[in-house]
């Protein structure tokens, strides 16, 4: 049964243009992302994908046109807790002083609450996010000491800690080994199918994009292609708590791995 309430506009791009100095990157871009869409954004190197995501999260200002988040112009938008953003892989200076736990917890301090006190409930959310991404054992390590793939998981845990309504991921699996990559896609597909989460993901993984979002893009603009799948299936999740569900999923995946291991031995 179709739920008309799930067609709220989450991201609206209206005639958006952007240039760096003299280089025009976007010109007259129009697109909208609806609630429970999964959008895969594809484009060659330099096509402007990261620039577009940075405009959507308010880090860059369009030269002209309007971007709305949940119906509000980005410049007036305040509800940043509803958005999880994982930027393209960052490499950290090994001496960067924050621990993994601190980085994950920092996902709770939105732009207006930089110095908020950490409550017990915050600690619990942090533990859940660490557990969901299978990085509890790294919690006390300095972020700069981790491998690229481990750092990606930390940033995903940081993005998940608020149970966001919109997850924006910029090539989230770069530097992650193929087994973890597969687990990651399995996890985000589950999140899309069973929770009320909207996704915008930049990826070069055409196989994953096509297998989940279909062979043809829903829209194209310049060098960008927008692949799309819309989900109505929330029926399986009694629990609304995302981290609860991720924990369950992880357990399922772990037990499947055990079965494979046992099978290999026999
Ligand atoms: N800070 C900047 N100053 C000047 N030019 C920039 C800046 N950031 C990006 N560009 C240029 O803008 C264009 C778009 O860059 P962007 O990073 O958005 O592309 P992308 O599609 O994300 O590429 P990739 O797939 O390589 O990550 C590129 O030609 C890039 O060189």
Automatic annotation (TrEMBL):
Pfam families: ABC_tran
PROSITE patterns in the record: ABC_TRANSPORTER_1 (PS00211), ABC_TRANSPORTER_2 (PS50893)
Domain ABC transporter: 11-246
Protein family membership: Belongs to the ABC transporter superfamily.
SMART domains from the UniProt entry: AAA
PANTHER family tied to this protein: METAL TRANSPORT SYSTEM ATP-BINDING PROTEIN TM_0124-RELATED
CDD domains: ABC_Metallic_Cations
Entry-linked SUPFAM superfamilies: P-loop containing nucleoside triphosphate hydrolases
Protein's recorded name: ABC transporter domain-containing protein
Record keywords: ATP-binding, Nucleotide-binding, Transport
Keyword hit for Transcription regulation: no
Keyword Nucleotide-binding: yes
Originating organism: Paenibacillus glycanilyticus
């Amino acid at each position: 049964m179709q739920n008309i309430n799930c067609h709220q506009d989450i991201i609206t791009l209206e005639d958006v243009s952007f240039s760096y100095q003299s280089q025009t990157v976007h010109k007259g871009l129009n697109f909208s992302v609806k609630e429970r869409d999964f959008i895969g954004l594809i484009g060659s190197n330099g096509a402007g994908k990261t620039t577009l995501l940075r405009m959507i999260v308010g880090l860059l200002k369009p030269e002209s046109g309007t971007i709305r988040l949940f119906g509000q112009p980005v410049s007036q938008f305040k509800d940043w807790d509803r958005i999880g953003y994982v930027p393209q892989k960052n490499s950290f200076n090994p001496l960067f002083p924050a621990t993994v736990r601190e980085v994950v917890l920092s996902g709770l301090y939105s732009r207006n609450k930089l110095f908020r006190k950490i409550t017990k409930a915050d600690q619990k959310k942090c533990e859940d996010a660490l557990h969901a991404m299978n990085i509890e054992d790294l919690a006390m390590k300095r972020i700069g000491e981790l491998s690229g793939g481990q750092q990606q998981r930390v940033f995903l845990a940081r993005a998940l800690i608020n149970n966001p309504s919109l997850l924006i991921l910029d090539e989230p699996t770069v530097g992650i080994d193929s087994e973890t990559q597969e687990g990651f896609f399995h996890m985000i597909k589950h999140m899309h199918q069973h929770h009320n989460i909207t996704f915008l993901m930049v990826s070069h993984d055409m196989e994953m994009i096509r297998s989940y979002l279909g062979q043809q893009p829903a829209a194209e603009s310049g060098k960008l292609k927008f692949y799309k799948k819309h989900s109505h299936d929330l029926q399986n999740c009694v629990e609304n708590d995302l981290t609860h569900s991720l924990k369950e999923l992880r357990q399922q995946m772990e037990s499947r791995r055990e079965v494979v291991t046992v099978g290999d031995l026999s």
